Amino acid sequence: MDRKELHPVGKEPGILSTIACNLDADILSAAFPLLDEGRVEAIEWSFDTLYWAAEIPSWFTDLLLAYSQQNRLIGHGVFFSLLSGKWTKEQQHWLEQLKQLASQYSFDQITEHFGFFTGQNFHSGAPLHVPYTSATLRIGQDRLSRIYEACQCPVGLENLAFSYSLDEVKQHGEFLDKLVAPVNGFLILDLHNLYCQLHNFAISYEDLITLYPLERVREIHISGGSWEASVLEPEKKIRRDTHDDAVPEEVFQLLALTIPKCPNLRYVVLEQLGNGLKTESSRIRFRQDFLKMEALVQKSRSSLSRDVDNLFLPVQPLQKGPAVEDDMLHSQQLQLSHILETAPSYEDARQLLLASSLAGSAWKVESWEPHMLETAVSIAQKWKQ
Known about the structure:
By secondary structure, the protein is of the alpha/beta class. The chain is 42% helix and 13% strand. The chain is built from twelve helices and twelve strands.
């Protein structure tokens, strides 16, 4: 692989064209021609997908180290379950593994997903929303500070694609801002996730984008997804963030609109899961999507002047102490997970929710959109192990 095309440290181009590149044969086959040409300026690695791997091939380690040495390696967590109400031994192990990796690789930043995972231990299942309460805020801030202590680099959160109501959609950006504030963290603005919200809740881009703290956006994701029919409302299609298809033209349009609004943007990342890259035609389309993304990034370099210093580091020492927990939140998450994973239908799920401790609570289950509860049942039962 030719590394000569990488911009040397100290001559950063501003925004880096990046690929989410993991130890997956299909992803690597799709990305290899771009890597070989030196077009991939940074790599985003979902590091925790290999926490339990028996062995990592030396050639993959070499690839990670090559980008690490150029300060072009960023880490994206999947399994931490940031907003679970109970602190678990799995989360502690996750942090210990991250600390070890951070001593081996020079991560420019580490990110995680908003929400919690369904399932008894919250480390397998579907990532779902939580209510915007003081309890979830304290837990999220505590977990982000622990991630920072483990990695000692900027820490950020990704916006979630799934919501139960339009009110949640509108409040999401402000809550993310509050979550990352104590660590002076940043946001990944996933534009396909935003596209899901725009479609599923019939809100305009102009109305929604202003509700996000765009000065905190250090990274943008683009990806594809899928459509799911609603049984309740056959005329309605639900947009799902499944990462198994090419990037829609609408998402590229969102990218062109959004880059100029994010003064501290450093990475634009193309994501696609390996199960959507099984054929040569899908791999060619993946590379075409990268080149289209690259062109938009390069256009912004010629028109925008950007400061690429690490702006997102804590400005004061972080509070230390026992992990923050909330027994009521934990109990409600267990109840919600069980209902979503076992309910035979939307109507059964609705009745069970109304008879549970989530009724009349900050979860506001009474106002959940029927087609989104239906989708939550589908997601949870698909992910259930």
